[in-house]
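Deliverable D4.2, example record:
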Amino acid sequence: MGNVLAFAAVAAVIVIVPGPDMALVLKNGVAHARRAAIATALGINAGLLTWAVAAALGIAAILRASATAFTVLKLAGAAYLVWLGMRALLDAWRGARDSAPNVPRRRTSPFRQGLLSNLFNPKVALVYTTLIPQFVDRGGSEIAQTFLVAGVFLAMGLVWLTSYALLVAQIGSLLRRSRVRRIVSAVAGALLTAVGIRVALEPR
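Output generated by the structure prediction step:
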């Protein structure tokens, strides 16, 4: 229990610090309302669940052992974040929804965006391959302990991001005003692009 509480304290900092996940929830919530914000948050947490299973089964350890695998994941994640960021910047520049509010636009599912953003995030991979094992006792059932600790991380992420999505939706009428929406989209797009570039350039 002591290990779980200690991990929860560390995880709380990781979860609440603003990053690409929060930027993506904000971008989709402002552009497409509450359902999209919540779907994005659920997609992100589906990614966390996938990482938890991978870590418990030992699959995620491949990233820790293989520099090549980690680099491939890092570059794929960076490219995806930059792509999302550039799309948000383009939407902010064009003001597409303002100029053609009744024209349906094809867009990637918010759930899928959240899922892929999380799965391609090397920082999340490091949490499961480096941080979580430090709170697992080698004397007991490592798989059960990994699931428990990862479950704490997943639950905290679910509560935080869902609450954040609801907050974005609550003030959505203000944020979706034409000028404000474009500013928020530009800021979120710039953040996603900057994080993507930083991820690509960071050493392992």
